[in-house]
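ugh ok fine here u go
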Amino acid sequence: SELGVERRFVPESCPRAVRPGDFVRYHYLGAFPDGTRFDSSYDRGSTFNVFVGKGQLIAGMDQALVGMCVNERRFVKIPPKLAYGTEGVPGVIPPNAVLHFDVLLIDLWNLEDEVQVRTYFRPEKCPRTVQVSDFVRYHYNGTFLDGTLFDSSHNRMRTYDTYVGIGWLIPGMDQGLLGMCVGEKRIITIPPFMAYGEDGDGKKIPGQASLVFDVVLLDLHNPKDGIAIENQLVPESCERRSQTGDFLRYHYNGTLLDGTLFDSSYSRNHTYDTYVGKGYVIAGMDEGLLGVCTGEKRRIIIPPHLGYGEEGRGKIPGSAVLVFDIHVVDFHNPSDSVSITIHYKPSNCTVLSKKGDYLKYHYNASLLDGTLLDSTHSLGKTYNIVLGSGQVVLGMDMGLQDMCVGERRTVVIPPHLGYGEDGVEGEVPGSAVLVFDIELLELVSGLPEGYMFVWNGEVSPNLFEEIDQNHDGEVLLEEFSEYIQTQVDTGKGKLAPGFDFEKIVKNMFTNQDRDGNGKVTAAEFKLKDQEAKEEHDEL
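structure:
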């Protein structure tokens, strides 16, 4: 004669219980005391959806549902006076029938409910939170209130990307995402009137369903955003900052806003080399690399419309904010020439180096960031060259001009006057600016341009006869070489310094041997001034 309620399963967590006025969705089996079934929501494939305590149910069920938790199972015995009484339901429920219901509560909400947000992880640093009109990328698991999964971006292995607060989402999600930080994790519980309402979505979400979203925010930007720059290390000395048209070499780590690494120049052990402001890199990087110093470290945060846009590229998803931690190794401009800084110049500096002079000098060679490449000091010997003869890179030939013995200077050489785009494998990186700290130790004056040998006095009028020692009218290479050696040894003549004696002599002999037969005759033999008249250069 009285209502009977048996709680057959009660979940450990019950944050909310049914109260009069709540809307519930539940499954049930309806049977008579002898076990004969008269109704079942399971057979219809949909829950029974109704307000509690508003007379929409038989009185016994209205009472029995009060206090239930989602996922709770109750066995309810309802006497006739709280069911269909003396009349019953023709063809279904006989008069004065006791009814048994096996009830499982699936969902519960109230018209006064609001979106509920519970944050269970929030990063220590939160420089920015989601605002209306922001674009976000997030992962989520979507469940009903009973825990049943209806959707997951994780399963699709792709974030959900959308604007917030402009109607692209259900109202409850629009509201629930506001105020989130990148990396934050929160549970957003949405009543149906702020979700898919009475009709559901026509697919997996039934009508009047509360929705629970477990969300982790991965990315956040606004279409109005520009790049953001965070200076991490700026050298105390910064004589020059990068400008449009400069060529930069820099290292970088590229990550997404949630810290996921997508690329690194360090892993390739090679800098990224590019022009700045010319469209060779994404627009945000073009802008972010302007105004940097050599040795500077900065973080450049690039919104997707200045990065790889909606489509992304490779490991970079569409609409992703990019974070680049860069370290500028060096930069130059194609219009740069050699830069010379004199640190010490002797007071008696009358003889200056010029093309053709033989120089002996010490140097330390480094990159613009200070990385040491080479040093003659470590080898214990000087570097010896003939200036302007192509024995060193063009920039060094230029940097050693007009130097006196004892002078110390720093020569900065741009790559187009150094080792170019290719560099020297294993020694000098491609497109590298080179810095040489130089001290000139010895200078031997060279010969006038175009000469490999000159006389210190008057030239004998019988020069050919003197060279032709056996007087056979022909001079062989051995005779020619012996004669030149004697002139040098006795101080009557001078060879161009810094070159191999045998090569110079052979070169001179070959120029005289006009028919190439290995012999020089009197008819072939001509001095330099005689050749000049015939527009022939001995060299």
